[in-house]
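About this split. The held-out portion is used to measure sequence recovery: a designer receives only the structure tokens and must propose an amino acid at every position. Recovery is the fraction of positions where the proposal matches the reference. Here is one held-out target exactly as it appears in the evaluation file.
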């Protein structure tokens, strides 16, 4: 294809790369191991919903039933919710609503790639404040950068992907109060942190937006359902760029069903949290690797010089973990926590590769 046909910003653009999967055990994408359709109560409601769906009719533009179910879950007004095909779609909408070419998006590093990727598509610039040693967010650095640049959009990922670090809400509030412009807090993993959400800041600070997803703790990554929570004026603003019928009828129906059965689904989430804490405690005494504390369903591991050999050995053991291209992250893996069986297999591969581990 003629490269000149492309929008200028896309000429040297590297798309978000999804690793090809050949392994049987996939712990590279923070998915749940549990199929919620195996819960009889969920399956019963899903079958009933399927029987009454009308695929010949366009879906509700603002996903009213789902919106109400989310609002009920979070104890907010439905006018504060906008649902999309995963948090990813909502991120795209937010970037398209608030950023012009050359505008600044401020975030921290390392973090989730999509903010920078979407900003780059429209020609906005990302400025990232690097974490302090040990992957602690540099809150003073972020605060200074907000005051210096007054970025059109600031994004804080909390708990952060890939580090797993949870921010004190007071630090998020500091950034929000310093910023004259919108601040997006990405809480895709907040159900695993069980901490107070930045949603509680929205009444006081109308520039706050929060993203959540059903892909992680609700185990519905394949269904594509995420949403933003913000003051209704912000929701109306972002609705301007939303495609009219963005969310299909299946997602609208099944998303609401998952939320209705959250108590049962969260038992699985609770098991993952317990396994995460158990496994991290076990790994922290293993020589030759370093693991970082996590408030999510994954954790970061530094395997130092053993990283290439360990990645290959895991692959041979049919286990896929997430590794990073950037030189400063080359020795790191991000490992999704699923079950004790899987984790014990990971540990035995670590012990095979690293002498005296
Ligand atoms: N935010 C963060 C921090 C994520 O890690 C992800 C998924 N990898 C998302 C948002 C988007 O998730 P989804 O589109 O599946 O809702």
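Reference sequence for scoring:
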């Amino acid at each position: 294809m003629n490269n000149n046909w492309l929008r200028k910003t896309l000429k040297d653009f590297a798309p978000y790369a999804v690793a090809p999967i050949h392994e049987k055990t996939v712990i590279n994408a923070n998915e749940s191991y549990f199929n919620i359709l195996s819960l009889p109560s969920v399956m019963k409601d899903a079958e009933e919903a399927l029987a009454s769906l009308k695929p010949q009719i366009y879906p509700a533009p603002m996903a009213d039933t789902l919106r109400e179910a989310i609002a009920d879950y979070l104890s907010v007004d439905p006018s504060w919710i906008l649902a999309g095909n995963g948090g990813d779609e909502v991120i795209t909408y937010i970037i398209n609503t608030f950023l012009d070419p050359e505008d600044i998006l401020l975030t921290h590093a390392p973090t989730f790639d999509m903010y920078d990727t979407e900003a780059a598509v429209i020609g906005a610039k990302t400025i990232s404040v690097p974490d302090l040693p040990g992957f602690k967010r540099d809150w003073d650095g972020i605060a200074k950068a907000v005051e210096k640049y007054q970025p059109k959009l600031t994004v804080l990922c909390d708990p952060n992907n890939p580090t797993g670090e949870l921010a004190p809400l007071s630090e998020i509030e500091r950034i929000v109060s310093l910023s004259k412009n919108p601040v997006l807090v990405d809480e895709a993993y907040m159900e695993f942190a069980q901490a107070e959400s930045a949603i509680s800041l929205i009444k006081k600070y109308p520039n706050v937006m929060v993203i959540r997803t059903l892909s992680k703790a609700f185990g519905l990554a394949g269904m594509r359902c995420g949403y933003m929570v913000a003051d209704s004026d912000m929701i109306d603003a972002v609705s301007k760029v939303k495609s009219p019928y963005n969310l299909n009828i299946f997602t609208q129906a099944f998303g609401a069903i998952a939320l209705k059965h959250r108590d049962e689904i969260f038992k699985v989430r609770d098991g993952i949290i317990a396994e995460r804490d158990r496994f991290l405690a076990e790994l922290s005494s293993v020589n030759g690797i370093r693991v970082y504390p996590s408030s999510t369903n994954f954790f970061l591991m530094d395997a130092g010089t053993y990283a290439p050999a360990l990645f290959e050995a895991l692959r041979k053991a049919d286990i896929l973990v997430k590794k990073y291209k950037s030189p400063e992250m080359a020795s790191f893996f991000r490992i999704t926590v699923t079950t004790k069986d899987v984790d014990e297999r990971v540990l035995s591969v670590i012990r095979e590769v690293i002498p005296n581990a």
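Annotator remark: The mean pLDDT is 96.
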